[in-house]
Input
Amino acid sequence: MGAESTLHLTREAAIREAEILERSVSPTNRMADAIRALAIDAADPGDPVVPVGMADLATVLWTRFHKFDSADPRWPDRDRFVLSAGHGYLLLYALIHLTGHDGMTIDDIRTVRALHSPVAGHPEYGAHPAIEATTGPMGQGLATAVGLAIAERNMAARFGKSLVDHRTWVIASEDDLMEGIGQEAAALAGQLALSKLTVLYSAESIPAGGDSAVPGSDSVLKCFAAHGWATRQADDRDPAGIAAALSFAVRSKKPTLIACRSPSALAPLASKADMDWCEPPFVIPADLQERWRAAGNRGASARRAWLKRLTRHAQRGEFERVVAGRLPDNWHEVLAGLKQDIADTRPKRASQDSSQICLDAFIAVAPELIGGVAGLTGFDAVQGRGVVPVSATGYGGRSIQFGPREHAMAAAANGMALHGGIIPFIGTSAICSDYLRPALRLTAIMHQRAIYVLTHDWIGLGERGPAYQPAEQLASLRAMPNLHVFRPADAMETAESWDLAMRRTDGPSILALSRQELPAWRTDTADSRTARGGYVLAEADGPRQATIVATGSEVPIAMAAREKLAGDNIAVAVVSLPCWELFALQDEAYRAEVLGGAPRVGIEAAGAFGWAQWLGPDGTFIGMTGFGVSGPCSDLYAYFGITAEAVVAAVTRRLG
Output
């Protein structure tokens, strides 16, 4: 059954229910009616259950507990409100409009889901400053809220309660709680005892399609209690009961889940005829408008007091720096020192080891750099130097023990980035990038700075078999808009990739790193050659007869092939292409100069998808055509023909 039919039937059922159930006409219920009226008047084909059925709950929250000021929706110490049940978007838009925020007019509500409207089909970050996060796929909003709560606790530990003391509120659906990411996020929040996180959900919501056969709230409450949450039930038509439950959450030392039940699953779905007032469409009675505007201004005094505290605070400069997303003033010096050490020592080491050395150097000067890995331990390079983890007993650490929870880890990184004051980094193996992809996609959509460290990025995990050998992951990640994928070829490119990821403020970056040792190819330190995405690593000794293009761990193979071809008096150049996205941004003349007009051969221990744009119609690709196999690493490259000899043969054939 379609959503429009569901709305029609539930309206008729609500009228029948109204004959049996006597509605309260308290001021809070009447204010909630304003939300219901806007949702009904909009006649939008979205889900009507959330905006209509949870209006009372949202009214109590936004008028008595949620700390915000409509005059400044980006005030740093505001509470964060996340509508994880994004299919009920009209609830959020009605709240923003009624509380007097600029940029959410009644005409916007009237033309819901119009092109370029802030009233989009789901809450979209950036469409309006009061929308804290993009919440599309189920469970993502809830898990993002966990990251917001982590960020608040960490920032409070760094700057004190006088600057950071706010809460994170979530309205979720049963779908959010049932998704795997929701359970991962709940376990993480319980592990960290995020007491300033409160999730409210309707225990009798009707999912898309009208099927009401969903689990009862008892099992949900028991599950969250087992994760370390405090739990409570409330009648979602009883303002006093809702307020009592929210007061309980404020006092709790644990994250809190509140299950909101209605006396009847259909009773909240009233029509305007059931209300004690009935205005023309999109018209709210003046007295209700006044009450809602007063609620929107309720946080003005708290914001002004906070601004005064900020002015006098000893850490004002540092606080404003990290909230603005600026790197430390000595950042360039640290990077220059790293690059000079690499040039002097020319280390032969795995790029994932080089990455840890970079992380250790950067984390020492950038306290906003916080993260961890999807495993039972954190980054060795961080913890090995006395950097303590974030925990339920101390939130000022720098390393988070996420556990094997890639889904929730990536979404939490989104929350930390959205909160401000933190640059999150997270790590897992490249093959597990499939687990974190939904949240990574939202990172890119929301243009947030987050750094994803993917190790074991090639087929060399031989003995572990094809299930652990990434073959198609690089191509699929490169296909994602607004994502920069770095695959560095040595320690110098690794340092430059980290620097570029840290400097980027309009989207996420991936560092795809190797486990095998890579030679140091470069000793130049003045400019970041990686910043252009691709460059000539080794020019031909004479006019080019061919160009070999490679990335990451296959650059040594390309360099070995160049040497062999030089012995046969064939002059070839080697191009390192660590970041396709940045290379694509360069002007056509530069790309033509780097790639040259001679025949091209590409080499990468991955699938060929996407390589044609760099190799041209007559190019040759040497790489994977399927999944990996089980066997020793040293045998796999030969088995798949990813060798210097194969490159030599390809060039020789091409030159005829």
